[in-house]
Design goal:
- This protein is of the alpha/beta class.
- It is built from 14 helices and twelve strands.
Length: 342
């Protein structure tokens, strides 16, 4: 961890902190599209949040020509989290984007979202976590009692915390949550104004760079093992009217994901080539950390698979914790005919 911290800290902290502004120009130059034998179908894709290393695989799929080979001219734009991505995709302003699957279930089951369809998994396990740093007296979930945590109000980490607290033996009423903008959370942790923040486990390298301290991570997956991480969604309209297009796009994106995990340094360099403010050291480290979450023996070896039984267990866990107002089944929001097979 210390070696990783030194590597990442050497990169500019300003870029580590920055949420990258919209950057849709890729390495597929217009001249490259000539002579492909037909017009490419234009597709708008949203990243999960900004343009950090965890989302570099989309740029890899574009840069390596996977999207083009599948017949697509893809405009990659930075997403702003689960709720925003669902609204943008179902509203027709984008065609695809990754959301936290548990966050999507919570929104759907509480009447806050509809008309989205899950077509592939990105991570087989949730990456949601509470992240602190050395010196805060936090080593176990129970240590969170009496501490102050920060996150955005709509974050899946924060919304899922009552369930996590119950399963981890935390008295939730003893934990104080304060609001913070997503781009400011690491700065709040570094300044000492809070004891921990909601974050994905892959955010460790950036936390180390920003705070100058070793991160302490409490992954939700330690107590909620059936929860998936991010999942690719499209609108119900596109899923119904263009199923073959969905399959082709998904396959190209997942090809980029597989390549990025196998070649994290190259993927980080590709991200930097397309997004000036990207931090290559942090991006590489994020991809290395994310690799263990993308495959799971529970759902076969193929990237992107989803298991109906596991999703049903996730729903049951959330229902048992009183986190859902409506009964749900996996088939209500996942099209298993479109999901890659295990």
């Amino acid at each position: 961890m210390r070696r990783l911290t030194r590597t990442v800290a050497a990169a500019a902290l300003a870029t580590a902190l920055a949420l990258v502004s919209a950057c849709s120009s890729g390495s597929d130059k217009s001249d490259d599209n000539k002579g492909t034998g037909g017009a490419l179908e234009k597709v708008t894709y949203l990243t999960s949040f900004g343009n950090f290393g965890r989302d570099a695989y989309a740029w890899v799929a574009k840069d390596k020509g996977y999207f083009k080979e599948a017949g697509f001219d893809v405009d990659i734009k930075p997403g702003q989290g689960t709720g925003s991505i669902i609204q943008t995709v179902t509203g027709g302003q984008a065609d695809f984007g990754p959301i936290d699957l548990t966050g999507g279930i919570l929104q759907l089951g509480n009447g806050q979202a509809k008309d989205f369809v899950v077509v592939a998994a990105i991570q087989q396990r949730t990456m949601a976590a509470i992240v602190s740093v050395d010196g805060k007296g936090i080593a176990t979930p129970k240590d969170l009692e009496g501490k102050k945590l920060a996150d955005t109000p709509g974050s899946v980490v924060r919304n899922l915390f009552p369930t996590y607290a119950r399963l981890a033996g935390i008295e939730g009423s003893k934990v104080t949550w304060v609001n913070g903008e997503a781009q400011a959370l690491m700065g709040m942790l570094g300044s000492g104004s809070v004891d921990g923040i909601g974050q994905f486990v892959v955010g460790q390298p950036t936390v180390a760079a920003v705070t100058g301290k070793a991160p302490v991570v409490l992954p939700y997956s330690n107590v909620m093992q059936d929860l998936y991480g991010n999942a690719l969604i499209t609108s119900a309209k596109i899923a119904k009217e263009k199923p073959e297009m969905v399959k082709k796009f998904t396959a190209a994106l997942l090809k980029g994901l597989e390549y990025a995990l196998a070649n994290p340094q190259e993927a980080a360099d590709i991200l930097k080539k397309n997004v000036d403010a990207a931090n290559p050291a942090a991006a590489k480290a994020e991809l290395e950390l994310m690799a263990a979450y993308v495959r799971s023996s529970n759902s076969g070896t193929a990237i992107g698979t989803l298991d109906s039984g596991r999703v049903a267990k996730s729903i049951a866990l959330l229902q048992g914790a009183g986190a859902l107002k409506q009964d749900l089944t996996p088939e209500q929001f996942i099209d298993f005919d479109l999901v890659p097979k295990a």
